[in-house]
Design a protein that fits this description.
The chain has about 600 residues and is of the alpha/beta class. The protein is built from 15 helices and 25 strands. The strands form five sheets. An eight-stranded parallel beta barrel has the order 13-14-15-16-17-18-20-21, surrounded by five helices. The chain binds 2-acetamido-2-deoxy-beta-D-glucopyranose (2 copies). Keywords: Carbohydrate metabolism, Hydrolase, Polysaccharide degradation, Signal.
Length: about 600
């Protein structure tokens, strides 16, 4: 479509590409000719090869452990970024309990075939540990296929680095008639001989196969994240500016992020309603939000029958004013200690009625206005509703919420799943089992599900976080970090940055919301600002990441062919074109979240 503006016809032709390395047919039809020359011939050839479906060969290559060669090829292909990935990280995870274990990842890594791989053997347990040679300052990715000689039980993997401190590297629920994959890991700060062993809470013997322990320097680990960011969070864009049918050379562009892209949000409190400085600080940064407490049952119906939505309504109106998307938090909270007295006292029949009333009330009140619902908060740690209403209470509640508000993604929301492998209640394998139970409830098949991970960290175990995200992402539903914070301590700032980067750098994670809601009398565990809304160091880190993840090119210009090429983060951008032949700048909105590979914009 061309629209004539007097004598001038100006066309912005936007061609979008997936990030650096188009690895699968998923990318569908991005032809290599259109690939910006910057990436070089070798790369485009490789891409078209891949696109042609040669993926299976490639994968078997990987499995054979030839990965390092492959990556250096990749690194050569891209002249714009030097990648220090020697061994690519393997994000795969089979979440089925299987008859035969799969081959070890990374060919076993530093676990030699003689010590573990190939043979079925009793797993190393305390007293018969597996000795491993560990390097200093490395992230170790651990994976193992495990089963028990009888029954069902929890199995925990322990890594003891040379300095002697025990690190819980991961944990799963294992069975006796099939093998379950554990993914996790540990970070070392000393060099030398270490131990690896497994423990169980059952009296059964543990069997282990295909144990793999692969070390990565911190640099390599970061390079994995960068690869994911290039592939999952960015797009190559080609903007062609034409005027009167001819390319407009040397046009000045300005590109400004306005909306969409990777969701990065924060929790808000009702204090925002009366404090313009809070509102301004929040709206300047965040386009996604969760109300800390205002939508919870105890906020909207503290006294039975007296519903009060004024606060939440005003907060939602404020969010709408600033184009902020809101997560609905929450319909129910399975924690007994957070029920009102009047709810705790109800017998099963009366509770059932009260639950139906609450559900209908809050969900219809906000239907169509929230992007997510946290449906039954923390139903792995707690089971108030399951105990009173039956084991399928969560499944039933999901079904009813979906009936009244079909658009939002319906989330489970849980703490310690990626933060803390010592807490066995919310383990990734248990999370997936609960999700499957909810999905299997009659009528729940086609619902939109989400995995909410609260992410309240103390000292993060980054390899465990990644391994757990691998497992959870294999469920095939969007994963969000919903309540990110880090407790106070000398490394709070550093840990927060690590956790945020790990989330942003994982292909399964589709959004991050922080739990740094401001209160005059102090925040839950982490305030981003002081009481004058001046950033604290954690706030500075968040701003740094926001800038980095919405970064636009400096002083973009079209070349002699009227073309400007760049790699931009997903999002919606305002593109302004200035040129001496134009009376007025042309302003266009470009939506890089659209899945279209090509777009023509006329002005
Ligand atoms: C061990 O773990 C399993 C699986 O989580 C659990 O069902 C069982 O109750 C636990 N056993 C003991 C003795 O704690
Ligand atoms: C509001 O957000 C939507 C989608 O997130 C976006 O398309 C739109 O341009 C935004 N509007 C403003 C005024 O920023």
């Amino acid at each position: 479509m061309k629209i004539s503006t007097g004598k001038l016809i100006l066309i912005l032709l936007i061609v979008l590409f997936e990030g650096f390395f188009v690895t699968s047919v998923k990318a569908g039809g991005y032809s290599s000719e259109k690939k910006p020359g910057k990436a070089g011939g070798e790369s485009s050839e490789k891409t078209s090869e891949k696109a042609a479906g040669d993926a299976s060969e490639q994968t078997s290559e990987k499995a054979a452990g030839d990965a390092s060669e492959q990556t250096s090829e990749k690194a050569d292909g891209s002249s714009s970024k030097k990648s220090s990935v020697k061994v690519p990280y393997d994000y795969s995870a089979n979440i089925e309990c299987v008859k035969e274990p799969e081959k070890p990842l990374y060919g076993g890594g530093i676990i030699s075939a003689a010590s573990a791989g190939g043979k079925k053997l009793a797993a190393p347990i305390k007293g018969s540990v597996l000795k491993v040679d560990l390097k200093k300052d490395h992230h170790y990715a651990l994976s193992a296929w495990l089963k028990l000689s009888k029954g069902t039980g929890d199995i925990t993997a322990i890594i003891v680095p040379p300095d002697g401190k025990f690190i819980t590297a991961g944990a799963i629920v294992a069975q006796s008639d099939c093998w379950t994959l554990l993914k996790g890991g540990a970070t070392t700060s000393s060099e030398g001989k270490g131990d690896l062993f497994f423990e169980t809470n059952s009296t059964a013997e543990i069997m282990a196969e295909s144990i793999a322990l692969q070390g990565f320097s911190f640099e390599e680990w970061n390079a994995h994240r960068e690869e994911v960011v290039a592939k999952e969070r960015k797009k190559k864009v080609k903007i062609t500016v034409e005027s009167g049918g001819k390319p407009l050379a040397d046009a000045e562009l300005s590109v400004e992020w306005v909306a969409k892209g990777f969701p990065l949000g924060n929790a808000m409190t009702q204090e925002i309603l009366d404090m313009p400085e809070y509102e301004e600080w929040f709206a300047k940064r965040f386009k996604w939000a969760t109300m800390e407490n205002a939508m919870k049952w105890y906020s909207t119906e503290f006294e039975e029958g007296h519903e009060a939505y004024e606060v939440a309504d005003k907060m939602l109106a404020l969010a709408e004013k600033h184009n902020i998307s809101v997560r609905g938090h929450n319909v129910f909270w399975d924690d007994e200690s957070h029920q009102m007295d009047w709810v705790s006292k109800l017998g099963p029949d009366k509770l059932k009625e009260a639950v139906a009333r609450r559900l209908k009330s809050v969900v219809t009140h906000y239907a169509g206005k929230v992007i997510h619902w946290d449906v039954v908060n923390e139903n792995l740690h707690f089971k108030f509703f399951e105990e009173k209403l039956g084991k399928d209470a969560s499944g039933e509640i999901f079904k009813e919420v979906a009936k009244l508000d079909p658009k939002p993604i319906l989330f489970m929301n849980e703490f310690n799943t990626i933060e803390q492998p010592c807490d066995l209640a919310p383990l990734p394998t248990k999370y997936i089992a609960k999700l499957k139970q909810i999905q299997a409830y009659p009528g729940n098949k086609g619902l939109k599900y989400g995995i909410g991970l609260e992410s309240h960290f103390e000292t993060p175990n980054i390899p465990y976080m990644r391994g757990s995200l691998d497992t959870l992402a294999a469920a095939g539903v969007p994963v969000w970090l919903t309540e990110v914070d880090v407790t106070k301590g000398p490394k709070q700032v550093e840990f927060l940055e690590e956790v945020m980067r790990e989330g942003f750098g994982h292909p399964g994670v589709k959004g991050i919301v922080m739990w740094a809601a401001w209160h005059a009398k102090g925040c839950y565990v982490m305030c981003l600002t002081d009481n004058k809304f001046k950033n604290l160091p954690v706030g500075d880190v968040v701003d740094k990441l926001l800038d980095e993840w919405r970064k636009v090119p400096e002083k973009p210009m079209t070349d002699a062919k009227g073309v400007f090429e760049a790699e931009l983060f997903h999002g919606e951008y305002k593109v302004t074109v200035k040129h001496k032949s134009l009376k007025e700048p042309i302003v266009q909105t470009v939506d890089l979240d659209s899945t279209k590979s090509e777009a023509t914009i006329s002005c």
